[in-house]
Amino acid sequence: MKRVTLLGATGSIGLRTLDLVSSFPEEFQVTGLAARGSNVELIADLCRKYSPLAVALLDGGALDRLARILPAPRPELLRGSDGLVTLTRDVDADVVVSALVGGAGLLPTMAAVLAGRTVALANKETLVMAGSLMTAAARARGVKLLPVDSEHSAVFQCLAGHSRADVHRIILTASGGPFRETPRAKLAAMTVEDALKHPTWKMGAKITIDSATLMNKGLEIIEARWLFDVAPDQVHVVVHPQSIVHSMVEYVDGSVIAQLGVADMGVPILYALSYPERRPTPAARLDLTRVGQLTFYEPDTEKFPCLGLARRALEHGGVAPVVLNAANEVAVAAFLERRIGFTEIAQLIEWALDDAGAGSVGSLEACVVLDAETRGRVQRRIDARDGGRRA
Length: 391
Ligand code: NAD
Ligand code: MG
Hints:
By secondary structure, this protein is an alpha/beta fold. The chain is about 45% helix and about 15% strand. The chain folds into three domains: about 1-145, 3-Layer(aba) Sandwich (Rossmann fold); about 160-265 and about 285-300, no CATH class; about 315-390, Rna Polymerase Sigma Factor, Chain: A (Orthogonal Bundle). It has helices spanning about 10-25, 40-50, 60-70, 80-90, 105-115, 125-140, 150-160, 190-195, 205-215, 215-225, 265-275, 290, 305-315, 320-335, 345-355, 365-385; strands at about 1-5, 30-35, 55, 75-80, 95-100, 120, 145, 165-175, 235-240, 245-250, 255-260. α1 (about 10-25) links the parallel β1 (about 1-5) and β2. α5 packs parallel to α6 (about 125-140) and α13 runs parallel beside α15. The protein is globular, with a radius of gyration of 20 Å. The N and C termini lie far apart (about 50 Å).
């Protein structure tokens, strides 16, 4: 029986993970759940269904409401961002599924690594912010970082049984997002509703907007660099609208190994949970004769500047990836609140990167300070631009 702690239990990845736990009751048991606390009724339902030992909510008010709804005996209740860290550090678990969205996942995910727990990582932002620190900590403790992101799960599978020294490059596939066919001149007028219509994946709002700007693929380039310990210029991107080839590894002899499957996050989530074994995922099966055609082409980096900004941040290193991620999170939130236009997301990130200092980020504490400082800086710029107006 594997004991699973789940960060981001109420999200798209979190709920799919819990579905899989329900499908394999002999294999997995939920020990801890964490979420922001926006939907207390849902969290109470999850507690009744999965009986975790502990629950951590960022929102203290939500935790108090949960205590009133759930009669004793109830799980231990942990409060605030410290509570999330306590959950992953102190509550025994064999695997911590890191599926919070954004930089909020950094400290609890790192706490899981420091406690020596296997991490199934969906929360790519943490590796963008602190890839060097987190992979070094994992290596030092022999902790496995198992990718949940579909592209990285694909690469992980394509690397199995091969020598890292033989890898020529990693080729990440991108669906191209909802604006793949939209002319560049029309992007500025795209609304929140337009951007939330992803062609192949159903996901949380932030990653769906990141997929529309292609920042998601930019973050994934950085994620791949750290997860697989390759040079930045060894990570390439091709657009593949069908989302069937989840990514590829090209070896020095020219051989390319790909991983294919239907676009269902259940497959990479279950692989990370059951690794190194495989289980029969309750998901549709791939029938290539019904797919018919697989197409691939170069991404348009002029139309999607976020891809180039992410690459620039990775190559620059130091503070730049932290600044990139923080600026992106604030800009995406402002777009979702209809305070800025779609193309202003990339403009704000570029401004934040241009204005970022040099220097390195030597510790997690420094990373957290820089993250907060950048968020404040970008937020103030947004406030100044629209005079504090909210739509
Ligand atoms: P989501 O928005 O659906 O869910 C996010 C979860 O995190 C929720 O449970 C929410 O309560 C919690 N949360 C958000 N902010 C928090 C905070 N400050 N403190 C504590 N909890 C907080 O997001 P998602 O689509 O499930 O994505 C989660 C992560 O997985 C992201 O990093 C995303 O990039 C990655 N990912 C998602 C998919 C997907 O298919 N959804 C695919 C690959 C990678
Ligand atoms: Mg992905």
